[in-house]
Amino acid sequence: MLRPGYCSPNRKDIGGYLLDDIHEQLTKNMKSELEGKDVELMQDGWSDTNSSLTSTIADACDVWLDLLVHEDLQSYENKVKKRFDQVMTGKHFLANMLHPVYRGEKLSKKHTEIAQEMLLRNLQHSTLTKHNDTKEHKDAVEAHQMRKQLYSVEDTITVSDNEELKVSEADKHLFRTVYFAAKENQPNSSVNKLLELLKASGVQINYQDLTSDTILDIQKSLLFVLDEAMKDELKEAKYYGLILDESTDLSVHKKLVVYIRYVCPSDMKVKSQLVGDIRIPDGTADTLVCEVRKLLQTLGLKTVNLVGLGSDGASVMFGRKGGVGVKLQEDSPMMTHVHCVAHRLALACSDATKAIPYLKNYKNILKNLYTHVNGSGIRTYKLEEMQSVMEEPNLKLKDPINIRWLAMENAVRTVHKCYGSIVTYLQSNEGKNTVGDVIAEGLLREVLHYKFPAFTAILADALQVLGVLSKQLQAESLDLSQFTPMKDSAVGKLNGPKTVNGECMKEFESQISTNGNKVYYKGIQLTHSNEKKQC
What we know:
The chain is of the alpha+beta class. It contains 22 helices and twelve strands. The strands form four sheets. A five-stranded mixed β-sheet has the order 7-6-5-8-9. The protein is elongated and about 105 Å long. The N and C termini lie far apart (77 Å).
């Protein structure tokens, strides 16, 4: 500290790069010390700053129980069992038995007896009586009863001891309400309001002021029932396909989204189910393949029965040597890897635009027009007023997105339908010196150019055809025999304007008028009308 210029590390440095350096050194030392040695892993549970439980000894017990019966470890069964007996104690069995998800279902009779003996040995009668009177215990009992009634949608439920429990209509209404709120992406707080609405409408409702924990517990039970039903269908279907895509959520967490497709044996219809929204540390092929294999193991599916894989055309997916498709084919020789046809159509459209020089400038005009108007509530109101005065549709300008062609279609068609009100609004800002009005004057010069409304009409016709084709390719069940007719029909319609104009182009030409050398569209004089032949 006496050295001139020395600055002691602050809290950020200590918890940042200095801690990282120490961690790396310790990791290196531990690897060299433990290499080739048998080790014992101990773990405990804790809560993070969001009070979310990250790990428990009940989880550890469940993992060990899975290892005992894992098919890949059958040759090491005696060693695994020996290690299991050394590591697992009565505390582990008791934690697993009391866990709300595991509930000791994988424990053997011997393990259950050990857990029960430990519970009775350490439990005082007075403590048990006092706990039974607490609100938390009563809520937990109520939630458990609800969960038991979720294992069937029939009027009766058969439980393990062959006792039949009646499911009341009030319980059914509660479960349906919670399911509806979750399916519609409504917050859990809306469940109580929905129950109040049902009760006011004369529906029998016996529950009110449900806590968030109770609602969450019902959701988990519903999820369990739906997952079990899906797993049963997958076992009967045997063969299945996967759809993979990478994404990033609002928290900037990298995610792997996994859908599974299979033929439901009961009605022979193709089903698509979301089975994974997995956070991943990176987007490498090894990481993605590892997560997919873990997911399939959780679902009880064999990788050899994977017959189809759908993805985008990214190199991490389609790499010839180290892509996800190639790595999965090592375990799934029957698998066919398909590049999503709807995605390929979007890429083809994006590549085709490079051959049209004006289109890049046209997109910039639409983008600037959208930003200028929608960036101000006053400008948006003025445009709506112009639309009412000129009796044009009351439509908001859309953001033109390059890859999402359906969004591009909406942006173009809105400008085509509201061209008159847009120009009139921009003309009302002429002669003013504010920054926004100067931008409006620049936009006005662009949209008055004859090429702009003409190109808008042509593009609106073309994008309508492409939008229909894109939706057809994204159908839930697409018959491959229908692909060629759909493609040929789209190509024929796109080639049609060479001889016969489309709907929007016909409308454009019908509203064109001339007065000498001047050209008018919807009563608005256009500039550079000498470029009419070029369009």
